[in-house]
Task: inverse folding
């Protein structure tokens, strides 16, 4: 079954249909009791959005002694958090040197270090609160699709090795063995990363928040924020009111109009995944051993991983600004190239979700007004960075100074903003990436640095 119409726009806001959540993630996850906000409630901190950022903010604020309430338009984890590919990455979107140059040594160092700690932070949360979410911290494979890609991976490894971390560079044979297939010239194996069921993780984080006294209000879409008195704010929902000293807006791509001046800081972009039927155990035992996920240095989506029940999950190309029409053929070609011995793979379901892409692809906290903070710009790194961003938001509510935080804090008119016509710009950039990806592969094959499919077949026959 393929899901063609997953999201709609209502009142200028993005919504995802809960029935379009990936069944490969939702199966076996128990519902968490929540209620609709009615009447008037009071809290120290009101959080808008029950995804990973908002729930982490709520949990950590509660642990710091604050009374916290979360309002969510739909259900727990029904946005991007419950739809993720499932890879917990210890990196920002850019290489560390880029962040150090852009933000300076002090803030850049805090940001790079925080991202590097992200997987450990996430898996420690899972351990502490006993969250059943198929979590495996077995490392991640970043394969080089070209000689230039391999050089970039070597530079990345050198950066982290200087900091005393174990990051391995694999040769061609070691890469094929680590993947269980493929024909990459090399790869980076980072032992810090891992994989998980993102929907189960999000629900588990909500359960932990509730156990620490957080009120969870679902089916309670935020409508407006207005001043209540000199020291507090009033958050209006469809059927109730929440009065709080601090309001944290953690809706990321799904809503950016609650706080003034925030909308241009992110561009909602759709990402697409597909999952196969369960493969036979004798086959899955040979693919991506150790529960590691694979991505490569190509300019196009390239993620591949196995779920605990033996399904392949693959990131695929699809429309940037709508939910339908993900390129299933892309997944078939990707798997055929990696694992030709599998034969024809049957794809059982597809889904997509919105990510909040910042112009420079770095997350930030925007102080929209005294007492109103917005966390955004995760740019596709939400599984690790979202919980970290939520923790920083909670620390702000507790009175932490900006210098104590990992993420930059800016005003609504500060930081990079998307210009008018951003969708057209992003669409053109996507076409350029697709074209340049083909040029990369053509050049590599032209100069013999990677073999073509026919050459690989010759090598296999020669080996036999």
Result:
């Amino acid at each position: 079954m393929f899901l063609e119409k997953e999201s709609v726009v209502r009142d200028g806001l993005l919504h995802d249909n809960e029935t379009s959540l990936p069944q490969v993630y939702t199966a076996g996850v128990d519902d968490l009791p929540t209620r609709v906000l009615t009447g008037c409630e009071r809290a120290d901190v009101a959080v808008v959005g029950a995804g990973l950022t908002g729930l982490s903010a709520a949990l950590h604020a509660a642990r710091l002694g604050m009374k916290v309430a979360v309002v969510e338009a739909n259900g727990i984890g029904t946005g991007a958090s419950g739809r993720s590919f499932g890879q917990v990455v210890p990196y920002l979107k850019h290489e560390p040197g880029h962040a150090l140059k852009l933000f300076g040594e002090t803030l850049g160092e805090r940001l790079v270090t925080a991202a590097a700690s992200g997987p450990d932070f996430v898996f420690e949360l899972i351990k502490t609160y006993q969250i059943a979410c198929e979590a495996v911290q077995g490392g991640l494979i970043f394969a080089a699709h070209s000689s230039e890609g391999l050089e970039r991976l070597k530079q990345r490894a050198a950066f982290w090795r200087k900091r005393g971390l174990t990051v391995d560079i694999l040769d061609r044979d070691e890469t094929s063995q680590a993947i269980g297939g493929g024909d990459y010239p090399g790869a980076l194996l980072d032992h810090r990363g891992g994989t998980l069921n993102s929907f189960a993780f999000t629900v588990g984080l909500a359960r932990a928040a509730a156990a620490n006294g957080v009120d969870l209000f679902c089916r309670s879409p935020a409508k407006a924020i207005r001043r209540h008195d000199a020291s507090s704010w009033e958050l209006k929902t469809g059927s109730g009111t929440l009065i709080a000293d601090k309001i944290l807006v953690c809706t990321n791509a799904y809503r950016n109009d609650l706080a003034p001046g925030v909308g241009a800081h992110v561009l909602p972009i759709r990402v697409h995944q597909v999952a196969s039927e369960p493969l036979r155990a004798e086959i899955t035992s040979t693919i991506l051993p150790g529960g590691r996920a694979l991505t490569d240095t190509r300019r196009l989506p390239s993620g591949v991983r196995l779920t605990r029940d033996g399904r392949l999950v693959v990131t695929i190309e699809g429309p940037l600004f709508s939910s339908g029409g993900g390129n299933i053929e892309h997944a078939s070609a990707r798997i055929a190239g990696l694992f030709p011995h599998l034969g024809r793979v049957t794809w059982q379901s597809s889904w997509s979700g919105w990510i909040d892409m910042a112009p420079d692809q770095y997350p930030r906290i925007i102080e929209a007004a005294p007492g109103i903070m917005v966390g955004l710009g995760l740019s596709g790194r939400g599984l690790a960075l979202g919980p970290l961003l939520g923790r920083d938001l909670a620390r702000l509510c507790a009175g932490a100074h900006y210098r104590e935080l990992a993420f930059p804090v800016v005003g609504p008119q500060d930081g990079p903003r998307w210009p008018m016509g951003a969708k057209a710009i992003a669409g053109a950039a996507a076409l350029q990436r697709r074209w340049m990806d083909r040029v990369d592969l053509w050049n590599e094959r032209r100069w013999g640095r990677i073999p073509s499919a026919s050459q690989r077949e010759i090598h296999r026959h020669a080996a036999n």
Q: What stands out?
A: Residues 121 and 183 are 33 Å apart (CA to CA). The chain has a mean pLDDT of 88. The chain has eleven helices and 21 strands.
